Amino acid sequence: MNTTIHIKTDIQTRDSAKKVAEDFGFTLTSLVNAMLKQIARTKRLTLSLDETPNQYMIDALKQSEEDVKAGRVISFESGQEALDYLAKEIADEKQATH
Questions:
Q1: pTM of the complete model
Q2: For residues 52 and 55, what is the distance between their CA atoms, to the nearest angstrom?
Q3: Cα dihedral sign, 46-22-40-3
Q4: What is the pLDDT of residues 45-98, one digit of tens each?
Q5: Which of 89, 92, 60 is nearest to 74 (CA)?
Q6: Neighbours of 81 (CB within 10 A)
Q7: How far is CA 67 from the centre of its chain?
């Protein structure tokens, strides 16, 4: 026996989810049913928030790679070493302004 579940969501979310379902060869209804069956069977819910980087992030990653190759980075063996470095930089900056 089938039952109907009413879910409130905004139109953009519904349409985006519908497109993803169709890309995988599902209807939105069949995709939701598959997810519900998996949750019931495994007693787990797995979500992924994978994102495609925007142009700003792509450019920043390229710049980071260039900085590493050019030796314009500082590496630390531990978090404490990084904190000590920052404390010294702050102290040096304060001393330079006085």
A1: 0.47
A2: 10
A3: positive
A4: 988 877 888 899 999 999 999 999 999 999 999 999 999 999 999 999 999 987
A5: 89
A6: 12
A7: 23
Q: Which two tokens stand for residue 13?
A: 């979310």
The token pair at 84 is 């000590």
Length reported for the chain: 98
CA distance 92 to 81: 17
16 near 22, Cβ under 8 Å?
no
Judge contact between 76 and 85, C-beta under 8 A.
Answer: yes
Residue 84: predicted pLDDT: 96
Cα 93 off chain centre by: 35
